[in-house]
Structure to design on (327 residues):
């Protein structure tokens, strides 16, 4: 049985999609799972034996070219977890007796934001993803799970070799700067961690490098940074070796959750109720409950308040109490 899963982006969404992979693999272990995504996120599945065929695109290909890259014209089932014009167009070329598309509740989410939360309700993106498997007879709720690549693990062991302290991660970046907690607060947190004999480890991509270095320049204690220095596969491997991690509402939160690593994630202009935090057992979410949040679905809107209440009200002490005090 050949099953195609489509989800092009972004990092957190791809990680949540691993729950669909896991659910199929548990219920129908003989199924050959094909996953279509962008090349940027292909490392999430590097070395993952649950995936029969990973098809990675650059992102500028036409729907027909993407269809041709799949290598076959038909599948027993197609699971569209993106529900975009592109994914729908690709799906139209494929022959399959079973096509299931996610309900993202996009209109309801936008209504909640545009009404300034007068129509507030809770959403469950993980549940929406798993509902696409009902036609396959799969109803079990599973959480996302990432399988670190063997070679990436070896690389992580090499770069962490000789560090004789416990390791605690900090991921101060995000796709949108409005979703980032204060740099001063991250620096205080990192110093507190280091003061307990644990080495703060900063992670992120090349877009986070400058912010990470500004945070480190505020610190008085030792730390190490891999931001922009290692690829996604090795980043996943490094996170798997951490005692815990502090993140914003960002991809590293999902990576930690899918690895079972303890984490605390800071939400500001976005809100856990929008459904993008799928209840990872190893995680804790911090939100100020500011009435103006969420002010956008993905946290990309400019703040309309005089100050960033949703972030400023999440104090250094609150994060310490939730996460670091257990070290």
């Amino acid at each position: 049985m050949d099953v195609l899963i489509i989800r092009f982006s972004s990092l957190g969404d791809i990680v949540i999609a691993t729950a669909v992979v896991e659910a199929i693999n548990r219920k129908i272990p003989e199924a050959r799972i094909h996953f279509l995504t962008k090349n940027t996120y292909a490392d999430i599945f590097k070395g993952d034996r649950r995936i029969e065929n990973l098809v990675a695109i650059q992102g500028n290909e036409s729907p027909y070219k993407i269809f041709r890259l799949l290598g076959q014209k038909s599948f027993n089932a197609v699971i569209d977890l993106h529900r975009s014009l592109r994914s729908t167009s690709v799906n139209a070329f494929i022959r399959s007796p079973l096509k299931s598309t996610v309900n993202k509740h996009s209109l309801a989410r936008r209504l909640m934001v545009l009404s300034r939360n007068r129509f507030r309700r809770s959403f469950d993106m993980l549940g929406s993803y798993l509902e696409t498997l009902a036609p396959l007879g799969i109803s079990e709720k599973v959480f996302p799970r990432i399988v670190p690549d063997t070679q990436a693990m070896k690389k992580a062991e090499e770069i962490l070799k000789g560090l004789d302290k416990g390791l605690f991660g900090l991921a101060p970046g995000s796709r949108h700067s409005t979703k980032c907690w204060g740099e001063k607060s991250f620096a205080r947190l990192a110093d507190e961690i280091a003061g307990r004999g644990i080495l703060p480890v900063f992670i992120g991509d090349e877009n986070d490098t400058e912010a990470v270095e500004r945070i480190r320049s505020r610190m008085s204690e030792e730390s190490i940074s891999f931001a922009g220095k290692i690829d996604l596969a090795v980043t996943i491997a490094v996170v798997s070796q951490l005692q815990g991690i502090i993140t914003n509402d960002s991809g590293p939160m999902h990576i930690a959750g899918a690895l079972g690593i303890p984490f605390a994630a800071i939400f500001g202009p976005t809100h856990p109720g929008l459904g993008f935090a799928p209840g990872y057992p190893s995680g804790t979410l911090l939100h100020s409950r500011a009435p103006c949040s969420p002010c956008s679905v993905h946290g990309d809107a400019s703040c309309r308040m005089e100050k960033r209440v949703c972030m400023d009200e999440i104090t250094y002490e609150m994060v310490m109490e939730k996460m670091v005090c257990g070290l």
